[in-house]
Specification:
Layout: E1 16-17, E2 22-23, E3 26-27, E4 33-36, H1 44-52, E5 57-60, H2 64-69, E6 81-83, H3 94-100, H4 106-119, H5 124-137, E7 142-145, H6 152-163, H7 168-182, H8 185-199, H9 205-212, H10 216-230, H11 233-239, H12 244-249
Parallel strand pairs: 4-7, 5-6, 5-7
Antiparallel strand pairs: 1-4, 2-3
């Protein structure tokens, strides 16, 4: 079993193991399911740790433009699969497009985030990527990441945990762990300075939190949206490949 404390990485943000939770018929072990921010700043030490995880698959949820701007730095000996999706590209990240519109009020930030989370599980490119991730979990160890490792990654990780039988409270606790890791004084100060420089505004606490952290009711909105569109959350998961065969295939993951 491989357990990697987040502080061991110097160039990969928001890394953690999202296994280790109980389910009705046992537990999902640590050392098989990982999540993080992008890998573009991974130094030699970080790449050595990644190599030691013996990952079968990396799921990169980023759009093509994001991958071009910040190419992943992977271990030279990495022999696993990398799942990406080329469709649905855009020149700029949604949150930057929103901030450029000029309304930086807390109400506008909240409305943007709710809309984003409600739409994210239904985007065609996410459906492709999420389906690929579920198929990959049946074959071995996996790392899921986007840019910050909190919104797209957070939604997919929550879906994976629910499909694996985690209690909703445990799923939410794991989702909110991003705040403990990322909402540090140093990160908040650096983000505030960046927002001032880019948009000539004095960012509110809520704006800074939106850039770095996550909110429980946003994840609730994403899961509700997915379930509403498909008829139920279980039906949505079936669309992603969570069926009887998948449940049999992931028995390797049970402890």
């Amino acid at each position: 079993m491989t357990v990697v404390p987040p502080h061991r990485f110097t160039g990969i943000d928001n890394f953690r193991d999202f296994g280790g939770f109980r389910r009705r018929d046992g537990a999902i072990p640590l050392g098989a399911l990982f999540r993080s921010g992008h890998l573009a700043n991974a130094g030699e030490h970080d790449r050595a740790i990644l190599q030691g995880l013996a990952l079968n698959t990396i799921v990169d949820l980023r759009r093509p433009a994001e991958r071009v701007q910040h190419p992943s730095l992977l271990p030279a000996a990495f022999a696993g699969s990398i799942i990406t999706e080329e469709s649905g590209d855009r020149g700029e990240a949604p949150h930057l497009e929103f901030l450029k519109q000029g309304d930086h009020s807390d109400a506008a930030v909240e409305a943007f985030l709710l809309d984003y989370y409600r739409a994210a599980p239904l985007q065609p490119r996410h459906l492709i990527l999420f389906s690929g991730a579920f198929a990959a979990i049946a074959t071995g160890k996996i790392l899921i990441h986007c840019t910050a490792g909190k919104d797209r990654t957070g939604i997919l990780v929550a879906l994976v945990q629910l499909a694996l039988g985690a209690h909703r409270d445990d799923v939410m606790t794991e989702f909110l762990e991003t705040n403990r890791i990322m909402l540090t004084v140093e990160n908040r100060s650096r983000t505030a300075a960046g927002l001032r420089r880019l948009f000539s505004v004095e960012p509110s606490s809520m704006m800074i939190d939106a850039m770095l952290g996550v909110n429980a009711h946003h994840l609730d909105a994403a899961l509700e949206s997915a379930g509403h569109e498909a008829g139920s959350l279980q039906a949505y998961l079936r669309q992603l490949g969570v069926n009887t065969k998948w449940q049999a295939d992931i028995r390797w993951l049970h402890s």
